[in-house]
Amino acid sequence: MKNTTFNIQFLGTCACDFSPKLENEFKDKFDNDARRSSAVLLNGKYLIDSGVHILDSLRIAGADRETITDIFLTHIHDDHFDILNVKELAKGKKSPLRIWLREDTRMPQIENTEYIKMTPYTKYEVEKGLFITGVNANHDEAAFPQHLIIEKDGKKMFYGCDGGWMLTKTYDFLKNADLDLMVLDCTIGDYVGDYRIFEHNSISTLRLMLPTFKNENIITEKTKVIFSHIAPSLHKPHNELVDIARELSCEVAYDGKIMEI
């Protein structure tokens, strides 16, 4: 019987070019090519990000909002952190909703929440046996970005959406990490010359980085590498992107995708 440490459901896999179809034919369902704001539900109780679509995403997924205890925040752009939605998630909870964020993040106070400030490259215990580390990300500094490393029972996952070419200190920190899962930003499609390249990944930059990740034992044969934070307007349709990713021994996230490690 498989020993599962992390149950992961992708609630949203988009960069911020949302499809108008989300307001009509896909209002009540997930679709590969009409992606919602980037978010993940981990083990039914931890959210990674909580953007403009999070309440709809949780509803469509059939997730119980009452079980959510923590939000692990990558940065404060509104497609990753929507204050009105967070207020709704916190409302009526018996214990404050905990929000884990980079230590210098400037945030308004939200009723029935607790901010837990994270020093980069420092490991914190979320609950017994579950640990989180924030590492610096190559993204808009005004949004206080961080990528996340989450560990439990010897399993380790990296979540790095909204960020471009990896910063040297973060790359050095990840050497020999032997990750079980690596979720990587893939905002830009399979072409060169896009101006967003300096703070988002393209297929081209991922082709360059992945072999080095392997050489430095950041990823190994066991690692599942998943592309997410995808801008549909910058990519071929989902099925074609799946074929491109397969050539790199990677997978493509889609809204509603469930996986276990």
Quick recap:
The chain has 261 residues and is of the alpha/beta class.
What does this structure look like?
- By secondary structure, the protein is an alpha/beta fold.
- It has one domain: 4-Layer Sandwich (Metallo-beta-lactamase, Chain A).
- It contains 5 helices and 14 strands.
- The chain has helices at 54-61, 83-90, 168-174, 203-215, 238-247; strands spanning 7-12, 39-42, 46-48, 70-72, 97-102, 113-118, 123-127, 130-136, 146-152, 155-160, 181-185, 224-228, 251-252, 258-260.
- Helix 5 (238-247) links the parallel strand 12 and strand 13.
Counting H and I runs of at least 4 residues, what is the number of helices?
5
Widest sheet, order of strands: 6-5-4-3-2-1-14
Count the domains: 1
Uncertain runs are none
Mean pLDDT level: 96
Keyword list:
261 residues; alpha/beta; Metallo-beta-lactamase, Chain A; seven-stranded mixed sheet; 5 helices; 18% helix
Give the topology:
Blueprint: E1 7-12, E2 39-42, E3 46-48, H1 54-61, E4 70-72, H2 83-90, E5 97-102, E6 113-118, E7 123-127, E8 130-136, E9 146-152, E10 155-160, H3 168-174, E11 181-185, H4 203-215, E12 224-228, H5 238-247, E13 251-252, E14 258-260
